[in-house]
Backbone:
């Protein structure tokens, strides 16, 4: 199964700043995704990272706030822009290789905004 | 929006007992996947069960799927303290194309030594 590495693993940021989270998969995968997990909650899909084109965002998430890049089949970044305390969450990268396949997750980035 | 609901939301049992968690969902699916999450860390993939399958096993884990009732269950046999974690079901919605999974709210399992 794919091994997914995320960095940073955690960060404490000032409000109004931006942070870019990196996700590296150890093999080429067709699909990559970004999720948010707010404290004590389940996971919510932010967007599907599309290789070579703009990400597909879920309702409630916009590109200006969460710009995503996916330059190739093994790497993606998520930027959390103009952060506020409400953005304090765990952000998780996920990948799977095709439909009806297991979807694997990185260890997540725990983000705290002061 | 959440696709699934797990129950119970929390479960506390003695080590050695079996733990059963249930998951219900709303729409037709390609597959359903179960995950474990330890204390706010990343998710560990446990089992994927496809819509044409009824039961799967992996070690001490047994998953069932009833598509007519839109429900699944995860059974952990002979529980251990290390099984203490949150467990989530997630559905791959039929016709969702390249969409990601939709997660339930999770069951927090505590194994008492």
Residues:
């Amino acid at each position: 199964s794919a091994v997914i590495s995320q960095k940073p693993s955690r960060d404490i940021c000032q409000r109004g700043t931006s942070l870019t989270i990196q996700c590296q998969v150890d093999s080429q995968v067709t699909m990559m995704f970004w999720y948010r997990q707010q404290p004590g909650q389940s996971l919510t899909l932010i967007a599907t990272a599309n290789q070579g084109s703009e990400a597909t965002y879920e309702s409630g998430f916009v590109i200006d706030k969460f710009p995503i890049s996916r330059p190739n089949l093994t790497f993606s970044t998520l930027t959390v822009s103009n952060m506020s305390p409400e953005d304090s969450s765990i952000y998780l990268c996920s990948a799977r290789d095709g439909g009806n396949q297991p979807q694997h997750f990185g260890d997540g980035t725990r983000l705290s905004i002061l | 929006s959440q696709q699934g609901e797990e129950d119970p939301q929390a479960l506390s049992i003695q080590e050695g007992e079996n733990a059963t968690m249930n998951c219900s969902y709303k729409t037709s699916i390609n597959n359903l996947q179960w995950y474990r999450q330890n204390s706010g860390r990343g998710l560990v993939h446990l089992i994927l069960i496809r819509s044409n399958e009824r039961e799967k096993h992996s070690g001490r884990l047994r998953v069932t799927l009833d598509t007519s009732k839109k429900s699944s269950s995860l059974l952990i046999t002979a529980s251990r303290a290390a099984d203490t974690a949150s467990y989530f079901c997630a559905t791959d919605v039929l016709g969702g194309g390249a969409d990601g999974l939709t997660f339930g709210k999770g069951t927090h399992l505590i194994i008492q030594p």
The interface with chain A takes residues 2, 30-31, 33, 35, 40-45, 48, 50, 88, 90, 92, 98-106 of chain B (CB under 8 Å).
